[in-house]
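3-oxoacyl-ACP reductase structure dump, as promised
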Amino acid sequence: MADRYLHFTSTATGRFLTRRTGLPQPAPLRRWTLESQSLTGPVLHLTAGDSTVTDRLGAILAATGLEVRASADRPAAVVLDATAVDTAAGLGHVHAALHPVIRSLAPGGRVVVLGVRPSPDDHHQAAAQQALEGFVRSLGMEVGKGATVQLLRLAPGAVAGAESTLRFLLSPRSAYISGQVIEVTSAAPDPVADWAAPLAGRIALVTGAARGIGAAVAQVLARDGAHVICLDIPQAREDLVRTADRLGAAALALDITADDAAARISAAAPDGLDILVHNAGITRDRRLANMAADRWASVIDVNLGSVLRTTDALLKTGTVNRGGRIVATASIAGIAGNNGQTNYAASKAGVIGLVRSLAPRAAAEHGVTVNAVAPGFIETKMTAAVPLFIREAGRRMNSLSQGGLPVDVAETTAWFAQPASSAVNGQVVRVCGQSLLGA
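structure tokens r here:
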């Protein structure tokens, strides 16, 4: 459904009225297209304090193909290395580096602050590095003009593993992600032969792929070179086959809650899966006092129970290949809660618990990473049916003052799925325009 308010504020009259009345002023977001695959303009590489990773970081930024400078009048992005900030006074270096340049950031620009995990053994360092989180979240609410701000925490020796994440964050693919904290481990990245097709030769399965977000995920994975198996319930067979045919993908009509679901997935992927995307989900909304047991049970089973069962079975049988990627779909409802969605919020919070617990063990035992996307208000047929005022609140209550698109979730999923994202594990990234709801 078209966002008429966003279109209105793009006109001269709309800009004038919203400035005068103090109404939200969303900027059209620049997303990835064949004609516009990267940011336009230089990237500033700045350092706060005496960092030991400056040279290695500079080499990685140069490898992205972006124009990296130490100064520029209208930067498309700013990367600030704050890994060395370990005292309250050291935070002054963050201010000194960004204060002179933040006003000149180009529309749709990117700010990425690099830090490290707060230390449990040094409370001064922990205070300074945790301060960066509050700084980034606040700056994300200030920059406007469709710009975004992120905090990227590096484990010791993790600079090389940050390349796929930096490429993602410093690109149009991350248009609807802001105010996020992403941690990168020291795991070595797998090589990528062609960054234009980073998933070439990989086999992916996407559940709930007939339409909406699932279809967008399948499309982006296919665009990036993967052979995709699209899975959805038999009742959606017509849409499922249409989506699969359009992408040159395979269609698997299957109820993911069926007892033999994992076995049938394994049979459909005789060479195993390199990417498993758990996207299938349902809503059966009612306040708890009015919610029948079957409404509760069906949502928990589809959104969480089936994810647990199929993940366990596909890991146990080795269907998910070593070096594979599992990406689950959570929701900001699982983080912030939502009126009338105790079942849905519980299921999505459960997905987050699954990811955080399974990720380190899956990496150690199977060489597989496990991450989650947590969408906010995404423009789909489901949200188009939401009452007008609730829909408008969902669109405007974030730092970008607009809803996201299914492709925004898909781009994040594709970044998680890359071979070079080996060091990104156990992360839950909100695709919500920095929603004002929740953490």
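The first helix runs from residue 4 to 9.
lmk if u need the other ones
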